[in-house]
Specification:
Layout (H helix, E strand, L loop, with lengths): L3 H8 L13 E7 L2 E8 L5
Antiparallel strand pairs: 1-2
Amino acid sequence: MATQQAVGRRFLPELLVTNDTMILKTIDAHTAGEPLRLIVEGFPRL
C-alpha cells in the first residue's frame, strides 16, 4: 500500500509534502476516452 507521500511524489514530483493537510474536492470523469479531473474546491483560484 502506497503512503500519501509516495502517491504525492508519483503524481506531483515537485510537491513538498508536510504535516499540513490539504483537502481537495474533485470531479473525475472521462471525456472522449481521456481522463479529466476538475478541482472544484480547496485549491487557490488561478
